[in-house]
Amino acid sequence: MRTMSWTRPCYGLDWSHSLFYLTLLLWTRRMNGLADFSNYLSRIITSHSAHACDGQPLRLHCPRHSTISIQSAFYGSGAARLCGADPPLRAHNHSCSAFTALQKLLSECQSHRDCQLPVTHLLFGKDPCPGTAKYLHVDYKCKPTEHKRHVVCEGGTMILRCKPPKVLNIYAAVYGRSLGQTDTCPSHLTRPPPFECLNHDAVHLVTKSCYSKQRCAVAVSNQTFRDPCFPGTRKYLSVIYSCVPQTLLREADPHIFSSTSSPSVDTEKAPPLDQEEPFPKGSDSSGAMMSNSLLTYAYIKEHAEMAALLFTSSVCVGLLLTLLAVSVRVTCRGRRLRDHRLAPKSLSQTVNRQEEEEEEEDDDDDEDDDDEEGTESSFISAAERKAIYGWEEVTYVSEAAERAERIERREMIIQEIWMNAYLNGSSC
Fold it and tell me: Is the pLDDT of residue 180 over 90?
């Protein structure tokens, strides 16, 4: 029985294995979350486009924590011919468009996560070219919830910058004045107009000047942008942008870095992109590893609380597993030592017991009693021996009492004889 207790397994190790597998599962799900975050970054960096023909629905969609930012919209019939060939009699109407397409898309889909519109000329007012197959083409970006916004009044210079290795990514730019923003670039000479006057085409000029650069400067004036307001109205330029890693932008839009077209807007001279690149050109595997490390760094920086919570939970789980392993080890070692100590002690007790029994047998043999009584008494337990000793003592007391009673009777008889003899002698 003692040897079986030595080989008994420690079932506490099963709990440690379960906790280890649970931690591995949570960490795997976190890695999947990082992969989803990589997909999310690619969605909010790149530009998206969608088109639909007359009678078909057009859907614009962005991932979570981002909204739609319309870049351009075209409704009509152009050289693309996305909806089939036009009738030959209508060849002169191949190029026609609705002027309200951009404004309609801005009012319906701007700053929404999901937008769906039925493509029909009734949505844009008057039919620009009746009898011609038309389509709606939209270019848009997914603007992240956490972004930067910079406003510069008319007559100033807007300077946008990012810390290397990050570069600029433009999501929206508007030049003019909107309603309800009297505190932005106020004018004491003229009153603001009672309607909005905005130039949404400014996003193309700002993107052309600042996209994929670490620093850019744009002059805010009517010479740079088309004036959408009445003369005398003080306007401003509002730009929504973010700083993204240059490596991710290169992977998402590689043709931007290879293009050498010079912008038409006045910008400050910036160093070449080759000098801005902080990492040397290497193989695809090294680039992928660098991209993954940048993704992890960007995720940790953007979600500092989640990263701290994950780190703290990992440390706590590690300490818990270590404590559990140490406790199991100490418990198993204590059981082994205890069993190892009990085994020699039990053997010594059995040997001592046998020696005591042999000594008792020898003592019984040395006594004057019979051998049979001695052998029988050696097998009698202590309780039985005590009962026997008590009975013998009671028997001895009763015999002494009988003997005293006999002596007393004998004396009484002797006294009666003496009295009788004395009486007889006196009578004589």
Answer: no
Instruction: Determine how many CB atoms are found less than 10 A away from the CB of residue 140.
Output: 24
Q: How far apart are the first and last CA of the chain?
A: 99
Whole-angstrom Cα distance, residue 78 to residue 419? 170
The position carrying tokens 């620093």 is 215
- Cβ(77)–Cβ(167) under 8 Å? no
Contact between 206 and 149 (Cβ < 8 Å): no
Question: Residue 233, Cβ neighbours under 10 Å: how many?
Answer: 17
Task: Write the burial class of residue 295 (CB in 10 Å: 0-12 exposed, 13-18 middle, 19+ buried).
Answer: buried
Q: Which of 90-104, 110-124, 136-150, 283-297 has the lowest mean pLDDT?
A: 283-297
Provide the pLDDT confidence category of residue 302 given band limits of 50, 70 and 90: low
Please report how the helices 304-366 and 12-45 are oriented relative to each other, as an axis angle in degrees rounded to 10.
170
> What is the distance between the alpha carbons of residues 425 and 386, in angstroms, rounded to a whole number?
59
In contact, 127 and 54? CB cutoff 8 Å: no
Q: Which two tokens stand for residue 193?
A: 């107009």
